[in-house]
Amino acid sequence: MKNILLAFAFLLSWTGVKAQEISNTEDALEKPNFVKLNLLTLVGGKISVEYERVLNKRFAVGAAVNLRPENSLPFKSSIMDIVDDSEINSLLDGMKSSSTAIIPEVKYYLSKKGYGQGFYLAPYVKYAKLNYSAPYTYDVSVDYQGQLVYDREETISLKGDLTTFTAGISAGINFKLKNNIFLDWRIIGPGYGTSKGSLSGKMTLNADEQAGLREQLGELKESLNDLPLKFKMDYTVHGNGADITLNKSPWASIRSGLSIAYKF
């Protein structure tokens, strides 16, 4: 009889625990959606909005959309200091850009809370298209019998785009602030992939101007190839301007963020 009572007490206890677990699961999945605004990217002039849907305790799926209106390169001075190459920096100095990116991902929550809370790992893929415009200044010089006749600068306006595709993994933590308000800190998210694009400039060029532009683009090609990512650039110069092609080249990026989130 004693054993039966103990077994009955255990059954009641187990049933209560399971009922509580089911109740907690139902409460967690009652509002499985998050919409998030990345506050960190606003510093660089980019709007990043993310949607996430919790599937169960461990897994969630989502996607982010990044939009950046045309403006000067974000953190241009820092980039130019890092590159530290006169040929590349002459192109970056007056460059303006805009971008659009779509980033689907899967999140795996490792914490006990789960259901969209706690520490997570998030494999992702990122497709981005960047539009560029830049004035490019080059030297035109003419020699005659070993003597410099004249030396001047010309500027050609270049426009084009760059398409990138990367894959990586993020690590972060999502925690509750109050009621349905959360804070998602994406600590780091390195990614690696490929890029390709083109630039062109329309301008009537005489033979001396073509020679000067061709020579300087050759130096730019060497500088790009010396970078760690080794961009593969080809170019043609003609009487109506220049065409520049960035062939399939390596590309790297890092995702990070501090997002305010609303759960519904």
From TrEMBL:
Q: Where is the signal peptide?
A: 1-19
Alphabetically ordered keywords of this record: Signal
Q: What is this protein called?
A: DUF3575 domain-containing protein
Query: From which source organism is this entry?
Result: Sphingobacterium litopenaei
Looking at the record's lineage, which domain of life comes first?
A: Bacteria
